[in-house]
Amino acid sequence: MILRLRDAVLALLALAAAGELAGAGEPIIGRTPSARSGPPAWGAPIDGQSGQPGGPGLALRCAKALTCARSGPQFIDDAVVLVRDGKLEAITTAAEAKVPEGYERLDLGSHWLMPGMVDLHYHSAGSFDINDMVYLANPELRVAASVVPRNPNLDRNVAGGVTTVLYIPGSGTNIGGQGVLLKTGLDRFEEMVVRNPGSLKVAQWGNPERWVMGVGKTFEGWTIRDTFSRGRAYARAWKDFEEGRGPKPELDLMFEPFRPIFDHKMQVSVHTQIYQVVLLTCTMLKGEFGVDVFLDHSEIGGWMAAPVAEKMGVPAIIGPRSVDPPSRFFINWAEVREEGFIGLGAGWQKGGHTKIGFNTDAPVIPGEELLVQATMAGHYGMDGSKLDLVRGLTIVPAMTAGLGDRLGSLEPGKDADLLVIRGDPADPRSSVERVWIEGRSVYDVRGERRRF
Amino acid sequence: MNSLLLLGAALLGSVMPSLVAQETSGSKSSDAKTADAKKDEAKKADPEPKWFAVVGGDVHTGTGGLLRGATVLAKDGVIESVGYSTDLPEGTEVLSARGLQVYPGLVAISASLAVSQGSRFLAEDDLHMRCCVDFGKNGHLHEGPLDAELDLLLADQAGLVDAQSDLRDAYDPFSSSLLMTLAVGITSAEQSGGALKLKRGEIDGVVMRERFLSSFTWTSASSGKTQLREKFAAAARYLREKREWDVRKDKVKDLPEPSKKGIEQKILSVLDGSARAKFNANDRDDLLGIARLAQEFGFRPVIEGCVEGWIVAEELGRAGAYAIVYPRQRRDKDENLVRAGGSSIENAAILHAHGVQVAIGPASNGIDLGGITGRDLLHLTVDADFAVRGGMTDAAALAGITTVPARILGIDHRVGTLEKGKDCDVIVTDGDVLHYETLVQYTVVAGKIAYDKQKELLFAHIRPRTPGDGKTSNSSGDSAPASAESQPPQR
């Protein structure tokens, strides 16, 4: 019965959508319903092997490819994307495309292609016991131990277009431990791992006050500075040893993560919010210690630090909040005495910041709703006309995590993490129809019930 | 009680005019009623109707039509015409919507009481909401812990039980919550099973319908289900016997009137159509049970939640069910069951395709001012968007936040679409109402502008309206509507 129901509904939907084909000469992303693409125009069903490592090549043709390239044009109309061995091979217009012999060709009709989305503040990849609060600084803890592949949250995230997450410890202490960068839709932990550790999680202010002793800003600031100072000394000692300048240091698990951090092979992700706190994140961690740091949350008036963060090269990843609400109606954390809704994306953008991304803090916001963070940034005044909303879901977080050469855009040589989507990714109406991760087909609404 | 009072006033005004005129009735209350009756007469005698028109916008009527550049003309808050070549009577207040979109005001089902009762409930506090909803519905407070604030609140409202109207007496027409609700285009809201028209700055006429939705529990325990079915059966039997008695009592002497003992008035109201039964149910089996109950006793159930409705959509459609769906509500499939289960983003679309009337509610029906957006009452259209993501058409999703909730609340003869004879509750937007960049520019309630984006501080700074788009003016014979008297302030 279910299959029959489903067929009937699909037929109705196809009929309903038939009138909504995207017309020629539309803006990149329009505001009318017709901006969304029409019914699927799939080629013959494929076996799902093409594009995989070791499988035949795959040639995808689509009405529009949002390339989200690191620089330059952000989209190609009537594009062809070539995939081979799990990597993107070429992205060109259909007219210029040279599809090699033996490649499977798949016409996506009026659908669009885009890179998989990246969520850099995520807690839903496994069991939720990831907020150990034994010490105020626990850099040695690793959340990788708690990953549960293909859990229902991860499966839904795939259907929301999220293909990579930074799974991090909670914010109960100043240094919560090491996160891990994971691909969402794959079956085994070993396949999922993009980089482990993915980041060192720092929670600067706002949550660790709940720690046993009831600490405040001064002690928390000292704890972070002290731990980083000792971590830097540890990393230097190992560097000296490796380069033949000193004796072999004793292994200390607590400070091990600081070796890749001070080698710039790993970032520090900081739960930070409120203007002064964001300033301190920039000046202490980036200015004083010179590590690669990025802002998570970035809320509650944090946007007022945008010029400083931009100047110092500190990316701002925003969420789960997307506005500073009118302080007249609410507590005045933001210290913005405004009577309007200040969009955080708009605030960072107007402050001249160019590396604005979005995060969910899942399960605070369900991971598959990452796109809604872009939706709301746009709603509350962030200008998306240069595709900054889409970049904030893809290339900005990818570059922020140090993966700009591997993820986040449709550029040759990158992982084939691809979404087939019905239109503007920031519009919740644009459903994700199909997902590939590293060339593997991990979600296809033709073969299963739509997950999201 | 309301109707009794009204009847009394009418009697005083018409049956006993001489008594009234001579002011000899003596009692104070009669005097007050007399004054009211006089006022009513004076109002009737007033020859000057108030005209209001929204001119030049693309009018989405909600009845299937899109009239580009049309005029919506209202007389005393009620739509007089929707169309072209409308002659505007002299003195019509004109709102120019040139270049803008015109929609019926949105109808929010299951809205937080903060909407009508003010800022006290701004924090989404379950306890407060629950207690207050229970209080409003049943006239007494359910068990549960109370804090000092809640006590205070109840003290404020202690007079409600004997008041004419819970909703009216608790309505705060100046609250910031009301303003925010209007600012997102919501002009009607369910409050405690009734429906309010969200008038700003005035109270008269806010209550459109009261105590219409009647909550029933379809418990997971089978005994509760059996009991409810038996209660419905008893009520149906009573109604049959009562009808028979009504017919035969004049012919048969001393025919005993059927006893109403043990019959629940709440169920009688559902069966005679004066109230509508609302269930909160999500499981497939519960949904099927409700559908059977409704078909057996001949009423159309409203089912809130309806998470597994997509599995039994045929049955729900056949039972004439209304569903209140929260498109982003999540529930994992129970893996102990072989059958399909769990939530589906396609729920609203599948239900709609099977003839179920689908109203769409927000992920959270409160007003969230903690900074997280896109999930609360202030972002109702986002949830309509998610219904579209699951396969609904834009039109059906829009109906899910306008016409269908109006039907569920029994106010569809007044709101939900833009048609002659309906209330002039109109929103003017700068684009497709379901698109995320669209902001409400004006909200009109009963023919009065209740919200103007550029005149309030909430959203004025976001994509400020281009001067020239949307102006108000007064058509006084020779001056054209386009010649605006005032410019909206720019920030």
Structure write-up:
- The complex is a heterodimer of chains A (452) and B (491).
- Chain A folds into two domains: 2-114 and 413-444, Urease, subunit C, domain 1 (Roll); 117-400, Metal-dependent hydrolases (TIM Barrel, Alpha-Beta Barrel).
- Helix content of chain A is 24%, strand content 23%.
- Chain A has helices at 2-17, 152-159, 189-192, 217-242, 258-262, 275-288, 306-312, 344-350, 370-379, 388-391, 395-400; strands at 58-66, 75-84, 87-93, 104-107, 112-115, 117-122, 162-167, 175-183, 193-203, 267-273, 293-299, 316-318, 323-324, 342-343, 356-358, 418-421, 432-437, 440-444.
- In chain A, strands 1, 2, 3, 4, 5, 16, 17 and 18 form an eight-stranded mixed β-sheet that branches.
- In chain A, strand 1 (58-66) and strand 2 (75-84) form a beta hairpin.
- The two termini of chain A are 21 Å apart.
- Chain B folds into four domains: 2-45, no CATH class; 51-103 and 441-475, Urease, subunit C, domain 1, CATH 2.30.40; 108-212, no CATH class; 214-408, Alpha-Beta Barrel (TIM Barrel).
- Chain B contains 16 helices and 18 strands.
- In chain B, strands 1, 2, 3, 4, 5, 15, 16, 17 and 18 form a nine-stranded mixed β-sheet that branches. In chain B, strands 10-11-12-13-14 form a five-stranded parallel β-sheet. A four-stranded mixed β-sheet of chain B has the order 6-7-8-9.
- Chain B is globular and about 70 Å long.
- Classes of the chains: A alpha/beta (452), B alpha/beta (491).
